[in-house]
Amino acid sequence: MDTGNTQDEHEGRDTEAVSRFVERFAAQLADAGMQRMAARVFAQLLASDSAAMTSAELSEALQISPAAVSGAVSYLTQVNMVSREREPGSRRDRYVLHNELWYETFTRRDQVLTLWEKTLREGAAGLGADTPAGSRIAETAAFFEFLQHELLGMMDRWRTHRATLDLP
Q1: Partners of 84 in the beta sheet?
Q2: Mean of the per-residue pLDDT values for the chain?
Q3: For labelling alongside 7, which of 44, 96, 119, 124 has CA 20 to 30 A away?
Q4: 3-state secondary structure string, the chain?
Q5: pLDDT of 57-66, one tens digit each?
Q6: CA atoms within 13 A on the CB side of 140
Q7: 36 burial class (0-12, 13-18, 19+ CB within 10 angstroms)?
Q8: Across the strands, what pairs with 97?
C-alpha cells in the first residue's frame, strides 16, 4: 500500500532519489549502447543493497511488466552482467549482480579485443598491408592490441588501488 511517504521503510532511503538515480544512470547506459530496459533493470539492481531482486520486485520498482523484466534479464544474463539464482525454498528466481561486476565486465572485454585483433590482422594480411584498406585495418588491429595491453595493466593497478580503499 502506498502511504505517500517517499522514504523506503526497509532501507531508510528516499525512494524518489533512488528512482532518479536509476533513471539517470540507465539513460547514460542506454546512450552508451545498452538496451534501454536492460539498463533500467541493471541500474535498479545496482541501487539495491542486496544486489539481487526478484522479477516481481523489479517490476514494482521500475513500474514495468514481468515480460519487460524477463527480456532485460535475458540480455543482462547473455552479456554476463547478471546471474539467475533460485530463492531457497521457493520457485522464484532472483536476479543477482556478479561480484566485482566492473572488473569482470572489462576482463571479458579483453577476450573480445583478442578476437577482434586476430580477425583484423587476418583481414589486413588478406587485403595487403600496402593497400589503403589493409593499412587502415592493420592500424585498427594495432590499436586493439595496445588497448588490450593497457587494459590488463589498468586492471592490475585497479586491484592494487582497491586494496587501499575503505570498501567492504
Answers
A1: 95
A2: 85
A3: 96
A4: CCCCCCECCCCCCEHHHHHHHHHHHHHHHHHCCCCHHHHHHHHHHHCCCCCEEEHHHHHHHHCCCHHHHHHHHHHHHHCCCEEEEECCCCCCEEEEECCCHHHHHHHHHHHHHHHHHHHHHHHHHHHCCCCHHHHHHHHHHHHHHHHHHHHHHHHHHHHHHHHHCCCC
A5: 999 999 999 9
A6: 18
A7: middle
A8: 82
Strands 93-97, 82-86: pairing is antiparallel
What count of other Cβ atoms lies within 10 Å of the Cβ of residue 86? 10
pLDDT at 9: 40
Distance CA 53, CA 50 (A): 8
Contact by Cβ (8 Å): 66, 72: no
What is the model's pTM?
0.71
Q: What pLDDT score was predicted for residue 12?
A: 73
Query: Cα–Cα distance between 84 and 76 in angstroms, integer?
Result: 10
Strands in 82-86's sheet, in edge-to-edge order, are 52-54, 93-97, 82-86
Q: Which three cell numbers stand for residue 141?
A: 588491429
| Distances, alpha carbon 119 to alpha carbons 122, 123, 130, 134, 142, in Å | 5, 6, 18, 12, 12
Question: Cα–Cα distance between 26 and 40 in angstroms, integer?
Answer: 5
- Cell triple for 6: 517517499
